[in-house]
Write a structure and sequence with these properties.
Blueprint lengths: L68 E3 L14 E3 L74 H20 L4 H4 L2 H16 L4 H29 L25 H4 L3 H22 L1 H7 L2 H8 L7 H23 L2 H4 L2 H21 L1 H4 L8 H22 L10 H12 L1 H22 L3 H6 L5 H19 L1 H6 L9
Antiparallel strand pairs: 1-2
Helix pairs in contact: 1-3, 1-14, 1-15, 1-17, 3-6, 3-9, 3-13, 4-6, 4-15, 6-7, 6-9, 9-13, 11-13, 15-17
Length: 501
Amino acid sequence: MSWEQQGHGPGQGQGYGHEYGRPSPYPYGQDGHDGHDGYAQQSYPQQQPHPQQPYWPEYAEPAQYTEPVQNTGYVQNTGYAQYGQGVAVDGTAPLPPVDANPYPDPEPWPDPEPWPDPDPDPDTDPEPGAEPVRGAGGPVPDTEAVTEETPPPAEPAAPQRDRYFDTLRALALIRVVAYHTFGWAWAGMVFPSMGIMFGLAGTLMAKSLERPAPKVVRSRLRRLLPPFWFWGVFVVLAMLVHGWMPGWEIVYWVVPLGDPPGNAWGEQAWEILWYLRTYLWFVLLSPLLLRLFRLAPVPVLALSLAPVLVLTFVWAGPDNRVGAALWDLSTYLFCWLLGFAHRDGVLQRMKPALVIAVSLAAIGFGGWYAFTHQAEFGTYDLDEDPLAQAFWSAGFVMLLMWAKAYFGIDFAWLTRLRRTNRIVTVFNARAVTIYLWHEIALILAVPLIDRFWDVPAFETYLPLDSQWFMFGVGWLLIALFVLVCGWVEDVAARKKPRLLP
């Protein structure tokens, strides 16, 4: 009797073969094993029976039954004779019952959830390398659909921040507070913090501009302006209480495209806003600057020092807010474009001898100009001399950026120093808060220390007249402002507000 006569005709298979239309889950031919028909009819020499082997239906090879066979030995349940003599007979024992479809369609994988916009920012999240990345494997199915033999794909590792850049930013903020406390003229030469901060912001801006430019600019404005507004409310109210009457220029307290106005009483607090104004202009100009830079990276980088030379020796610009913005943009334009050069690998491709020679030449010229023009500016302080600041910062930041690219410096070892690494993390996550509130902290430190003189023990044992003591009290107040006001940066970044990041 044939298989068709027993009810096993086409379309009635018990889960073997291809089931007439279903794609095979195994890479064999159409007829069970390399496409050869009648494989089960092949006879073999008599062999000794083999011990019973476990049957794993999920690993059984599909086969087409042509003629039933009867083994004198063991017949493996795969559709053809093995380990014995195959003899055709008219009847066979019924096959064990199996599911009609041993290879059911897997349950569809759930649609992946929409990925949130990473929205990197150089001051709060930036790095900058800190963007969440999507795994190459696509969405992960439910664990129930994953067999024990196939472990579920591992989740992509969280991206790590570049601790080299983070450390430079933290040191720059510390240097700013120290300069405003002690007034050291040499501080800018040891560590030109403003040039470094603009260089770091430039490289992160170039990274962010891999996305659409309008979206990046909106993100920068959203992250920068709310902390500025929150801080400005207290400063403006304090100046109003002390007799300040603003005019139409108060609009610069909304969007600081120009220096916000104020009175002499609050000058120490609002004079630092030149950095936010310059940073804001660089953000707005970056889509155009980056496109221009990529047309001819090295010539554009070299020519970026021309504007400060023109303002110094040819035309000083208007004596108003526009002129002040031009001076600051020209002073730090080279540093901002250095960030572009680092991001695009331009510095890494340059010859080390050339980079070192150009950097030292720029530093040498900036230092020479600062010391030879002390009579004009009253000091060799770089913050008072734009041309000297531009060249000194250009050479210094170029060496830092080139060393980062050429030697692959990442300060990964910093993560092993838990306390230091934690401090660097807080500084970077609260950079805007620290910069805005540090002057107010130093201002409040003076009357607070004056009250200490009323306590005999404090007067006897504490160095109340030391600037270092005021420096320490200032940092305690800065830490207090970070706890009380730092959450605004989280809200601006659309994160959950936290006391400390």
